[in-house]
Amino acid sequence: MVGNLLLRGMLIGVLAGLFAFGFARVFGEPHIDTAIAYEEAAAAASGEPAEEEEELVSRETQAGLGLLTGSVVYGAAIGGLFALVFAFVYGRVVTLTPRATAGLLAIAAFIAVVIAPAMKYPATPPAVGNPETIGERTELFFVMLIVSIIAAVIAVALARRLWSQLGGWNAGIVGGLAFLAIIAIAQYALPTVNEIPEGYSADLIWHFRTSSLGMHAVLWTVIGLGFGAVAERALATRQRGRTA
Predict the structure, then answer these.
(1) Which residues of 184-209 are buried (b: 16+ CB within 10 A; e: fewer)?
(2) 190 and 101 share a domain?
(3) Per-residue pLDDT, 195
(4) pLDDT at 181
(5) Of 26, 17, 46, 29, whose CA–CA distance to 126 is shortest?
């Protein structure tokens, strides 16, 4: 059954990747073009000779086939992981219906995997950030991501442990507060990165970051709703097979 759910999860992930690609193509790519134009204008205004770099992949390919491939592969991977987590928690940690379980899991994953890390290390458009620190910035982002996932696991385990004593609502509040406390400590302890050039368009950064979050919201919404529907059908078919 796990293999069946994994396959369905990856297929839903591919569908989610296509939706995310459409959103990024319409709402995200114009901001990247604006950022690139800003970077070129800033370089021209500085009066320094521009460094000629060999273009490995054209901008057109990056915004088209490259973005499509990346979105679909990323969606398939996330969909597969989502299916495995669903197979583990369904009936063990959560006793809701498959659709409700998938929806709740998608919301929790969106908060832990996207929102919490982005609050500390948000996405930045081209021309923002020192190329020499990209390795350090990437490491910090993944540290924040890992801490957020661990905090989510701890919060769920704590809520489940307190469920019988406090009831579902109060146990959920305690788990949520534990998650927020861990995230707050991590965000305070980890170094802040601010490499935005002086005079850079705040409006452009805002729209770039909101479109990035929007793309992830589309991805997780399709996965949560789509996988819940296919998982419910698969589990119902399995149940009918057992009772036949």
Answers:
(1) eebbeeeeebeeeeeebbeebbebbb
(2) no
(3) 79
(4) 97
(5) 29
User: In terms of residue numbers, what domain contains 150?
Assistant: 131-195
Nearest of 142, 71, 149 to residue 108 by alpha carbon: 149
Contacts of 171 (CB under 8 A, 6+ apart): 158, 159, 160, 161, 162, 163, 165
**Do 93 and 77 sit in the same domain of this protein?**
yes
Amino acid sitting at position 51: E
How far apart (Å, rounded) are the C-alpha atoms in residues 110 and 220? Answer: 6
Measured distance CA(102)–CA(225) in Å, rounded: 7
Residue 3: C-alpha distances to residues 9, 83, 167, 231, 234 (Å):
10, 9, 34, 12, 11
**Per-position pLDDT tens, the chain of length 244:** 788 899 999 999 999 999 999 999 999 888 888 888 887 777 777 666 555 566 677 878 888 898 999 999 999 999 999 999 999 988 877 778 999 999 999 999 999 999 999 999 998 887 677 778 888 889 999 999 999 999 999 999 999 899 888 888 899 999 999 999 999 999 999 998 887 877 788 888 899 999 999 999 999 999 999 999 999 988 888 777 776 6
The candidate with the shortest Cα–Cα distance to 155, out of 121, 108, 116, is: 108
- Structure tokens given for 95: 């006793």
In the block, residue with structure tokens 């009831």: 167
Q: Are residues 38 and 151 in the same domain?
A: no
Residues 135 and 222 in one domain: no
Of 5, 179, 14, 166, the C-alpha closest to 89 is 5
Task: Quickly tell me which residue has 């479109």 as its tokens.
Answer: 211
Residue pointed to by tokens 């620190």: 133
Domain count, the chain: 2
